[in-house]
Design a protein that fits this description.
This protein is α+β, with helices and mostly antiparallel strands and 141 residues long. It has helices at 16-19, 23-29, 50-70, 89-93, 130-135, and strands at 4-10, 33-41, 76-82, 97-101, 119-125.
């Protein structure tokens, strides 16, 4: 029986400024940030602290699993919460950092023509030196 659902994918631009990226750094290092695109614990599931527990489990395993599947190290998790529909309680309870709100433009091209709801952006570093890894210049032999 299913009690929750989760989907992960590559990150979007929302954390660029917080990380300290310019456009070339973002192009090189975006694969090091993974976006938690869907996370839902069904409303009929009544288990105290289940959501924050599942987020903790994901954050402990994702680096190893992602590296094994995609051959890419990751350093940061990112998620967006639509506050018109959800409170983001599980991310706050799991100590994710809220970086603020999106502009509600979506990601449909360079001008952001698609109008979507404003969302809160939360992040979870997977390594204490994540900025160093995400801002480094790759070396080539």
């Amino acid at each position: 029986m299913w009690c929750s659902a989760r989907r992960l994918g590559s990150a979007r631009c929302a954390t660029d400024r917080w990380i300290g990226w310019d456009a070339p750094q973002r192009a090189r290092q975006l694969g090091g940030v993974v976006n938690n695109t869907r996370f839902l614990v069904f409303s009929w599931v009544r288990v105290p602290h289940l959501a924050s527990h599942l987020l903790s489990q994901v954050s402990q395993r994702i680096r190893r699993d992602w590296q094994a599947k995609y051959g890419q190290p990751i350093w940061l998790l990112e998620t967006f919460v639509d506050r018109q529909r959800f409170a983001g309680t599980c991310y706050r309870a799991a100590n994710w950092s809220c970086l603020g709100q999106t502009q509600g433009r979506g990601r449909q091209g360079p001008r952001g023509q698609l109008s979507t709801t404003v969302k809160e952006v939360y992040v979870w570093p997977l390594h204490r030196d994540f900025r160093r890894y995400l801002n480094r210049t790759p070396t080539h032999p």
